[in-house]
Amino acid sequence: MTAMSRMRSVSELLLVARAGLWLCAARTGLWIVPFQRLRGAVAFLTRKPPSVGGVNSLPRLVWAVSAASRYVPQATCLTKALALHILLKRAGLESSIHFGVAKEGVRFEAHAWVKSQDKIVIGDFEPTRYVPIMVWE
Q1: Which residues pair with 107 in a beta bridge?
Q2: Model's pTM, two decimal places?
Q3: Among 89, 41, 87, 45, CA closest to 65
Q4: What's the DSSP call for residue 128?
Q5: Sheet with 96-104, side-by-side order of all strands
Q6: Checking DSSP bridges between strand 96-104 and strand 131-136, what pairing results, if any?
Q7: Distance (Å) of CA 71 to CA 2, 12, 16, 23, 61
């Protein structure tokens, strides 16, 4: 890959920066805010009227969150799901966060993933592994 093909446009860099800010906000919220209050904050943040004529498509927003998450400490599946959900909803796109659990022996795991347009767009859900327990619209 040449240096020129690796260069990003200003709009792409700004989108990654915006995704990074939402990732940091989600990560911080998960650390310091009780879950019910965080849920209320996410509901408030996603009430914004959809962007009109936005250039941020579903694949661009997924890409931006994935790219920015490499630079956010402890950007877990839930952190990424929250940030992407907020970005999608604010862009006027369909989004829901799904939560699931798995138990293997004595080990318990939880996982979050985002669905949009009837597809899992982030979180690589394993249907045979995780049992869905809750959905945020």
Answers
A1: 104
A2: 0.89
A3: 87
A4: T
A5: 119-122, 107-116, 96-104, 131-136
A6: antiparallel
A7: 23, 16, 10, 10, 16
* Model confidence pLDDT, tens digit, residues 63-102: 999 999 999 999 999 999 999 999 999 999 999 999 999 9
Residue 126's identity, in one-letter code, is E
Q: How far apart are CA 93 and CA 22, in angstroms?
A: 17
* Model pLDDT, residue 7: 65
DSSP string, 23-67: HHHHHHHHHHS-HHHHHHHHHHHTTSPPPSS----HHHHHHHHHH
Rg (CA), the chain: 16
Q: What share of the chain in percent tops pLDDT 90?
A: 78
